[in-house]
Design a protein that fits this description.
The structure holds two protein chains of two kinds. Chain A is α/β, with parallel strands linked by helices. Chain A has two domains: about 10-90 and about 220-270 and about 305-405, 3-Layer(aba) Sandwich (D-Maltodextrin-Binding Protein, domain 2); about 95-215, D-Maltodextrin-Binding Protein, domain 2 (3-Layer(aba) Sandwich). Helix content of chain A is about 40%, strand content about 20%. In chain A, the strands form four sheets. Chain A has a six-stranded mixed sheet, with helices on both faces. In chain A, strands 7-6-8-5-9 form a five-stranded mixed sheet. In chain A, a hairpin with a 6-residue loop joins strand 11 and strand 12. Chain A is globular, with a radius of gyration of 21 Å. In chain B, strand 1 (about 10-15), helix 1 and strand 2 form a beta-alpha-beta unit. By secondary structure, chain B is α/β, with parallel strands linked by helices. Chain B contains seven helices and five strands. Chain B is about 60% helix and about 15% strand. Chain B has helices at about 20-30, 45-55, 65-75, 95-100, 115-160, 165-180, 185-199, and strands spanning about 10-15, 35-40, 55-60, 85, 105-110. In chain B, helix 5 crosses helix 6 (about 165-180), helix 5 packs across helix 7 (about 185-200) and helix 6 (about 165-180) crosses helix 7. The chains are: A alpha/beta, B alpha/beta. The interface between A and B is medium-sized, with 27 and 26 residues.
Chain lengths: ~425, ~200
């Protein structure tokens, strides 16, 4: 192994079920195996993680997949070039509504809800009815402006023609506060990571309508983020970090291991939530409402299988299209320039190869076209990937992002000028 | 379109779950001529509070989970008449960095000139640091009290086992500490641990 530039690291995480790879790498001695002495720093907000990363209090962190792109482009208050060379998890989120709202959906659109229980069609009927009666608009919550959750909730709403900015109110609430805000009637629904859907269902006050997997099969959720500057100054340490986390993710691929680690993940040191909700979400046991059946969804969280850790640049481009779609990026961006600099499959391949793992040859793939498991080519033969279907059946060509944005309704009109937003120049 | 004339006091909303620190900062801000319009120390609906009290600046404890809620309020200006942004112009990145390191962050209404906010943030940074120093001092005092108790117990042990006088016991501990290049408290601690193991 090459000499480490730095061996004592502090990594930030947010207490959610899918912080498991960090917990496993720490507690099973995988960081230590690669010569790293890691302190895990539990953070209370994504804003904190972003700011502490930007000024170097944290060496790296678990980030929401769109965050390194947003930070690199200055969407939000921090403008700092970032890098991710590894996805930490796929899936793991869900959209949940209050029992009161669910009953309203049943009352107004029983047949629709029965026929399409996972779509937002019944919700749209409720919104239309409320508008006719001058009733108050509904309020939904997500966890951060440039979050997977924000784009997932908006995608789901828009799929039935709901305009998330016009037809309802969206707000941000810290994940652990979501169930209580719902109970107090301050919000009618939310999109959040586990265990905060399961906790709410266990309290008997809500219904989970749709999972992230159903919205976009095998889609990226958390990534390992470091600043570009840090990655350039600490290339060997970065590789060691990726290798330790890859081993942790591989270990988590086994269902027995997930059962074994659930108690530790749920403990006060990490997520600090009821064990049952954490274990269920970690092992893919889903209960959508208190009286509902228990569903086995082994693909609910994926940490390794289906080349889960590969940072597809097509995913980066997709997140950028959503930033344009919802008006966070006013100008079209140099999609592939940004995706190429922030998402780094090249760094991933080096770490994977050192562990004897194969990786996809290509950096981009078309999304939404594969409705079943399929393969892509790697160095030693085909690599198995999962389906990548979107809930509305749409397809995404990463080499034609502007046409994709135009095809998505509603969308904000980007101001098409020569002023292409790009990353700060390197010195 | 500046709503603010320089004569009007800046309206500040404090969000800090540590009541002692919030009180300290409130006093300091009032002394400096700012108007603290509300002080929130518990879990509240921040969107509601911001639209109710209409602050110009929000000073928030970095560890408050409500930061993400504030982040999004600048995006929902269609619904909220009070858009807030984090105060992070490039020229002020040093101030922001000091603030983050001190454990405090600020959100500022768009029409407030950044030159008027920097001194306010400086007051907050100073108070957060002062509070941190106070806490560290308190922790140190607690430690030294605990250490003194251990020295007394170790002396007692030596007096009981070896028939030393109190002065002799103390001198024995001191010699042990000097010989092993340790603090007397550490020597007392290891003596007590050893005694526990042997009993």
């Amino acid at each position: 192994m090459h000499d480490l530039e730095k061996s004592q690291l502090t990594l930030g995480f947010i207490p959610l079920t899918d912080c498991a790879p960090l917990v496993v790498a720490k507690e099973r001695g995988l960081f230590a195996k690669y010569g790293l002495e890691v302190t895990l720093s539990k953070e209370t907000s994504w804003a904190n993680i972003r700011d502490k990363l930007a000024i170097g209090i944290l060496d790296g962190a678990q980030l929401l997949a769109p965050m390194p792109l947003a930070m690199s482009l200055g969407v939000g208050p921090v403008h700092k070039p970032m890098v991710t060379a590894m996805v930490l998890s796929l899936g793991g989120n869900a959209i949940t509504v209050s029992d009161t709202l669910y009953q309203e959906m049943q009352r107004i659109a029983a047949a629709t809800l029965e026929a399409k229980p996972h779509s937002s069609d019944a919700l749209r009927a409720v919104i239309d009815q409320r508008r006719r009666e001058y009733d108050r608009p509904l309020t939904f919550a997500t966890v951060f402006p440039t979050s997977t959750h924000n784009y997932e909730l908006r995608y789901w709403l828009a799929a039935s023609g709901i305009d998330p900015d016009r037809d309802l109110q969206l707000m941000v609430i810290p994940p652990p506060q979501m169930p209580s805000a719902l109970a107090r009637g301050e919000i009618d629904g939310y999109c959040v990571g586990e265990p905060w859907n399961g906790v709410c269902v266990a309290e008997g006050i809500c219904h989970t309508l749709v999972t992230k997997y159903q919205l976009w099969n095998n889609s990226p959720e958390k990534v390992l983020g470091v600043t570009e500057e840090w990655a350039e100054q600490n290339p060997n340490t970065h590789q060691a970090l990726i290798m330790a986390l890859l081993e942790a993710c591989r270990w988590l691929d086994q269902p027995d291991n997930r059962h074994q680690v659930a108690e530790l993940v749920a403990s006060s040191r990490y997520v600090n939530a009821p064990l049952k909700a954490v274990r269920n979400s970690l092992t893919g046991v889903l209960q959508r409402h208190p009286q509902g059946p228990v569903e086995e969804q082994p693909e609910f969280n994926l940490f390794f299988r289906n080349a889960a850790n590969f940072p597809w640049r097509s995913h980066a481009v997709w997140f950028l299209t959503q930033m344009v779609r919802w008006g966070q990026l006013g100008h079209p961006v140099d999609f592939h320039g940004v995706a190429g600099r922030v998402f780094r499959p090249d760094l991933y391949r080096t770490a994977a190869a050192a562990l004897g793992l194969d990786a996809p040859h290509e950096d981009y793939k078309r999304e939404g076209e594969h409705h079943a498991a399929h393969g892509v080519s790697g160095s030693h033969g085909p690599i198995g990937l999962g389906s990548d279907r979107f809930i509305d059946g749409a397809t995404f060509d990463p080499f034609n992002p502007l046409r994709y944005i135009e095809s998505q309704l509603p969308h904000k009109e980007p101001r098409f000028t020569d002023n292409v937003v790009s990353l700060p120049r390197r010195d | 379109m500046h709503r603010h004339s320089p004569e009007e006091p800046i309206r500040v909303l404090l969000v800090d779950r540590t009541p002692g620190r919030a009180a300290l900062l409130q006093q300091a801000l009032s002394d400096a001529g700012y108007q603290v319009v509300a002080k929130l120390t518990g879990e509240v609906n921040l969107v509601f509070e911001v639209s109710r009290v209409q602050p110009d600046v929000i000073i928030i404890d970095l560890e408050s989970p409500d930061r993400d809620t504030l982040e999004q309020m600048r995006e929902i200006s269609r619904h909220q008449p009070r858009p807030v942004v984090m105060f992070a112009d490039d020229e002020d990145s040093q101030t922001i960095e000091s603030a983050i390191r001190a454990g405090v962050s600020a959100y500022v209404v768009d029409d407030l000139a950044s030159t008027r906010v920097r001194p306010l943030l400086d007051v907050a940074i100073a108070r957060f640091r002062e509070y941190q120093a106070l806490r560290e001092e308190l922790a140190k005092a607690k430690n030294s009290l605990a250490e003194r108790k251990q020295i007394d117990r170790a002396k007692g042990l030596l007096m009981q086992r070896k028939g030393y006088s109190e002065e002799e016991a103390y001198q024995a501990l001191r010699k042990l500490a000097m010989d092993s290049n340790k603090r007397i408290g550490e020597v007392a601690q290891s003596l007590l641990t050893a005694a526990e193991v042997l009993i």
